[in-house]
Amino acid sequence: MTEMTEREMGNPQVTQTDLAWLAGIWDGEGHFSIRRTLQGNGKKGPQYSPRVGVTNSNVQILTRVRQILNALDVSYYFREKGDGGFPGSDRQCWVISVETMVNAVKVITHVRPYLIGKGFQADCILEYCNRRMVHLKRVGGNERRKYTERDFELVRLVYEANGDIRGTSETIREDAQRAMI
Length: 181
Description:
Helix content: 40-55%
Structural class: alpha+beta
CATH superfamily: Homing endonucleases
Shape: globular
Radius of gyration: 17 Å
Distance between the termini: 45 Å
CATH class: Alpha Beta
Largest sheet: 4 strands, antiparallel
Number of domains: 1
Order of helices and strands: HEEHEEHHHH
CATH topology: Endonuclease I-creI
Oligomer: single chain
CATH architecture: Roll
Number of helices: 6
Number of strands: 4
Strand content: 15-25%
């Protein structure tokens, strides 16, 4: 990888060191996933959207993540996690969550060169978002933005890479079969 100056990265406030640090946080404490929601009580079918986030209890880490995201002009949600960081924990945790395609692409584009453990998920989500953003015009709703086989394949790959602990890949396959009819 060639050395880039801060100016070449497009934001003089964020350094390569910041981006590498952020990628390390995302590799260790974060997630790259795709959320399945049902629209109109399930009558309109499922919708899949990126969810890229970090969960942590350390205020200094969370503050620095937020500073970098703000400098990169990434919109995110910041909220307290109700039941601690994992089952059985009562430790106070917070979640920083990026939930739109445009902002997920911004985050992934900046941290991808430095990711080690979650690069595959990031690549799949980046491809998914770039494919779907071509159809982001709000006119015509989901009828104009139908999911393709590749869209479903990318979603399935992300779920499987993340462990697919709830059998979601089977649900995605069923969604894909219904969508292709």
